Automatic annotation (TrEMBL):
PANTHER family recorded: PROTEIN CBG26694, PROTEIN NYNRIN-LIKE
Gene3D superfamilies, per the entry: Ribonuclease H-like superfamily/Ribonuclease H
UniProt name for this protein: Protein NYNRIN-like
Domain called Integrase catalytic: residue spans: 31-192
InterPro entries linked: Integrase_cat-core, Retrovirus_Pol_polyprotein, RNaseH-like_sf, RNaseH_sf
Amino acid sequence: MERDCFQFVRKCHQCQIHSDLIHSPPLELHPMSAPWPFVTWGIDVIGPIEPKASNGHRFILVAIDYFTKWVEAVMFKSVTKKAVVDFVHSNIICRFGIPKIIITNNAMNLNSHLMKEVCEQFNIVHRHSTPYRPKANGAVEAANKNIKKILRKMVQGSRQWHEKLPFALMGYRTTVRTSVGATPYLLVYGTEAVIPA
């Protein structure tokens, strides 16, 4: 029966287009848990996105809270060191308080002297995931994959994806995350969102 299912999926064109691209064999999961909301954030960049949006944006800077799985995302034409620091100030610190830990990969724009200064100023521990082990920042990698999948289904090749990003975030925030068994919206606000469905 399982073999028949595999054969069916291989013949389905839509399944092949929208399937997850898994490049490594499955391993035992070792989730990084956070003891309370907004204590640990993972930050990463999606892009460059082709085709670029009609307003010229090609990148999405994404941050996810490890406890609630709440996602913040902003679009940019280019993700500069200053843009990353401004994002941390306005979208994390000013909205959710000072985190204890921020996890990024080793990209230059995410590990600049400006970022180091912000982390020292607010006493934030800045951890890095290596290129050889991106799953060390697995929550944000999973969020990136889901946001791209949602946008792909909403836009279908259009250059207007920048207009759909807020709706994609709303969809992500109001969908039950299996890792926590609740929606990020519920964990952040204590009530479910009123949505069209």
